[in-house]
Specification:
Largest sheet: 3 strands, antiparallel
Strand order of the largest sheet: 1-2-3
Number of domains: 1
Number of strands: 3
Distance between the termini: 18 Å
Shape: globular
Strand content: 5-15%
Pfam family, one: PMD
Number of helices: 4
Order of helices and strands: EEEHHHH
Radius of gyration: 15 Å
Mean pLDDT: 75
Organism: Arachis hypogaea (Peanut)
Protein name: Aminotransferase-like plant mobile domain-containing protein
């Protein structure tokens, strides 16, 4: 069973307990954590979304070209649940999905 443990700020995963730091999030998502803040629109084109999804999740999402590009959480759930967790890369993709969920699904205590 995987879950968030708010007392220790860790993910409890089937393979171990994991603490995610700001540096981890910056590295995983390619975000800068120092310097000027970003407070404007970012590139949300379909091509940008595809390239970032491949880099972060290891899979290319289906993007509807007639609407604004976005990732459905259900797609991320499918990617996460398909991981066998038998290699370092698969565990890293699994953790990236978990971080993505926390960012878009606030945890209620």
């Amino acid at each position: 069973m995987e879950r968030w443990k708010p007392e220790t700020h860790t993910f409890v995963l089937p393979v171990d307990e994991v603490t995610v730091t700001l540096e981890d999030v910056a590295h995983i998502f390619g975000l800068l954590i120092d310097g000027q803040i970003v407070s404007d629109w970012t590139d949300s084109s379909g091509e940008f979304l595809k390239s970032q999804s491949i880099a972060i999740f290891g899979h290319e999402p289906v993007v509807n070209s007639s609407s604004k590009a976005y990732i459905k959480l259900a797609w991320v759930y499918c990617i996460r649940d398909a991981e066998a967790l038998d290699t370092l890369e698969s565990i890293q993709r699994y953790v990236r999905c978990q971080i993505f969920f926390v960012g878009f699904n606030p945890i209620r205590e």
